[in-house]
Write a structure and sequence with these properties.
By secondary structure, this protein is an alpha/beta fold. Helices cover about 50% and strands about 5% of the residues. It is built from 20 helices and 14 strands. It has helices spanning about 15-40, 60-70, 75-85, 90-125, 140-170, 185, 195-210, 225-230, 235-250, 250-285, 290-325, 350-370, 410-415, 460-470, 500-505, 520-525, 545-555, 565-575, 580-590, 600-605; strands spanning about 330-335, 340, 385-390, 395-400, 400-405, 405, 435, 440, 455, 470-475, 510-515, 535, 595-600, 615-620. The two termini are about 60 Å apart.
């Protein structure tokens, strides 16, 4: 070893060498003290499976690097090399794309369920007695086509449920490796999937009809990061600290999510192969033209397999792309505001055909209802066992015709008139009506960026902050930032939303609450390692209160603000161009001084001064 003083002496008895050894011992003992003093939030030395969700810096490489740099050199450099070797930043990117893919399937699943619901109503209107109706008639062929379309969409629905459940399960893995929880969807792949049940039924059908048997088979990886950390010459406490940082900041969860995505891709690939093998045998079954039940059974299996094969390959391509290294963003998807962009190879060409068919049949159904009157005559009123009164007209209808206790006719007429068909929102109903989506944002928990109203959780708030770059964020306290209710003071059992806590570290946040325990709130926030922001306690329930506080804060920022009309331009572009990219919208919005208001009380969002202000985007907070 070279002499630290540069004198060229190498002996262990050298005074310089002795001084260096003493310095190293002091450094090894001091790093713990320094780490405890400089940590933000709970200490990594006290990490447990129960407390892991209280740590901020989730999915942040910078937070991990800040933790590791508290170690003495050269240990810190060696651990940072391990983090780089296992490409933690890439794991975080992949997890972010996985979250976006999960939201894409959420949008598609909701739309497909709506199509199937409409088709069931359409089938009830155009039902024919297939035994008594000539097979050459238009009515017979129309009903058969509708029935086949429903069978195909139900096969696609099974695959979409799997896509949504798998991507959601990979995102919901526990952060701490000692937590044994594993989502049901991942426990027994591929046999836990709905598509596998469809494969089993179709294989049974082939065996029964043709005497053929179609085959069926699954695997898992273990991360080597712990072994790599253990190979570095660290004492036990240092190893524990490094491991705690990787757990608390989400590195291990991101790595495991990537492993599970790979396992899901294997299972989906297996199902695609099985369905591909089943498609021809199911279609090859010869059914006697006079055997109506046999024809219908073949249609169910054939169309179900075909519908499933429209969806699963798209899921497989999405999972594989997540596992590929990529420099750009793969997907853009919002929670409920309809913002959605996917690359061409993840789109389903058949989707437009399905929508066009449903829209054509629905238009024809509404024309029949307009001609023949409401309620619809004949068998369509006998669907289902029990009848329920419509909230609007009081008529008795089977469940198929009711949406939130409002019949189809009343629903259509109310939407045409720009009114909320549900009608339980009271006097706020007209204000909360979204003309862009033809729905009440309150009754449907809807979202519309053009209306500056979004329904979502802390993760959605973070997405909006990244997109809108607000100059100031106003947070409610009870049941939003914290789990307290009805003005209660926070205590040792009170939980805090970690996504909102992260925002408080890096953005201009003010708390606007009706909870009067200001000192307890301030102490509670400081316990989580964050300097308490400005806290406003507002009383009463009048139009003043929170609106007055927020508008006053915006007036203080007015020196940096362009005219308010700039924000109105952004909202107008949202309404007129639904394909506006997230980056373009962000660039437009960042030119205006925007505020974000997050509250769990829908009444607060509809108050004068808050709803009317074009600078305030509102988030109805739902966990």
């Amino acid at each position: 070893m070279n002499c630290p003083a540069g004198r060229g002496c190498f002996r262990s008895s050298c005074r310089c060498h002795l001084m260096l050894c003493v310095w190293r011992v002091c450094a090894m003992s001091d790093w713990r003290t320094v780490a405890r003093q400089t940590e933000v939030g709970p200490s990594l030395f006290e990490l447990t499976p129960a407390s892991v969700s209280h740590y901020h810096g989730y999915c942040s490489v910078a937070a991990i690097e800040a933790d590791i740099r508290r170690l003495p050199e050269p240990s810190a450099a060696a651990v940072l090399d391990v983090v780089a070797k296992f490409d933690v930043a890439e794991s975080f990117r992949r997890r972010k794309e996985l979250v976006q893919l999960k939201k894409v399937w959420y949008h598609w699943l909701a739309e497909l369920e709506g199509m199937i619901r409409s088709l069931r109503q359409i089938a009830a209107i155009f039902w024919v007695d297939m035994l008594a109706t000539p097979a050459e008639s238009d009515e017979y062929r129309r009903y058969v086509n509708i029935s086949r379309l429903i069978a195909g969409l139900r096969g696609a629905l099974a695959a979409m449920h799997d896509a949504r459940n798998l991507t959601k399960a990979c995102c919901k893995l526990p952060r701490h490796p000692d937590d044994p929880y594993l989502p049901v969807s991942l426990r027994d792949l591929p046999f836990s999937l709905e598509s596998q049940q469809l494969v089993r039924r179709a294989a049974g059908y082939c065996k029964q009809q043709l005497g053929e048997t179609v085959a069926v088979s699954p695997r898992r990886v273990e991360a080597e990061m712990r072994r790599a950390v253990e190979e570095i010459e660290l004492d036990e406490e240092m190893q524990g600290y490094v491991w705690a940082s990787l757990i608390a900041r989400g590195a291990l969860k991101a790595q495991r999510s990537c492993e599970e995505v790979g396992r899901c891709a294997e299972a989906v690939e297996y199902l695609v192969a099985e369905l591909g093998r089943l498609r021809d045998p199911v279609a090859a079954v010869v059914v006697d033209s006079g055997y109506l039940k046999g024809q219908m059974l073949q249609d169910v299996h054939r169309e179900g397999v075909a519908g499933c094969l429209q969806v699963l390959p798209v899921l497989l391509r999405g999972l594989r792309r997540i596992l590929q290294r990529s420099s750009g963003e793969l997907l853009v998807a919002g929670d409920g505001d309809g913002a959605l962009w996917v690359p061409a190879d993840l789109q389903m060409p058949v989707w437009a055909e399905w929508k066009a068919s449903v829209d054509t049949y629905r238009t024809e159904m509404l024309r029949v209802i307009a001609t023949e009157g409401w309620p619809p005559p004949g068998r369509s009123m006998k669907v289902g066992k029990a009848a329920t009164p419509c909230r609007a007209c009081g008529g008795l209808f089977p469940a198929i015709w009711l949406t939130e206790c409002v019949c189809l006719n009343c629903d259509v007429e109310a939407r045409r008139a720009g009114k909320c068909p549900v009608g339980v929102c009271g006097p706020r109903g007209q204000r909360m009506w979204c003309s862009h989506k033809q729905q009440c944002l309150q009754c449907h928990n809807g979202s519309c960026l053009a209306c500056r109203f979004v329904c979502g959780d802390g993760e959605k708030v973070q997405d909006l902050v990244d997109e809108l770059k607000p100059a100031i964020i106003f947070l409610d306290f009870d049941r939003t930032l914290a789990s307290t209710k009805r003005g209660a003071a926070p205590n040792s059992k009170t939980a805090i939303d970690e996504d909102l806590l992260d925002l408080m570290l890096n953005t201009n946040v003010q708390i606007v609450t009706r909870n009067s325990n200001l000192d307890a709130i301030r102490a509670f926030i400081q316990q989580h390692g964050v300097d308490a922001p400005v806290i406003h306690c507002v009383g009463g329930r009048g139009p003043a209160g929170k609106a007055e506080v927020m508008l006053d804060a915006l007036r203080h920022l007015a020196g940096r603000n362009p005219p308010i009309a700039a924000v109105a331009v952004v909202a107008a572009s949202e309404a007129n161009d639904t394909e506006t990219s997230a980056s373009a919208r962000s660039a437009q919005t960042s030119q205006a001084c925007v505020a974000l208001f997050v509250d769990d009380d829908i009444a607060e969002h509809g108050r004068d001064g808050i709803w009317d202000c074009p600078q305030i985007y509102r988030v109805f907070f739902c966990r």
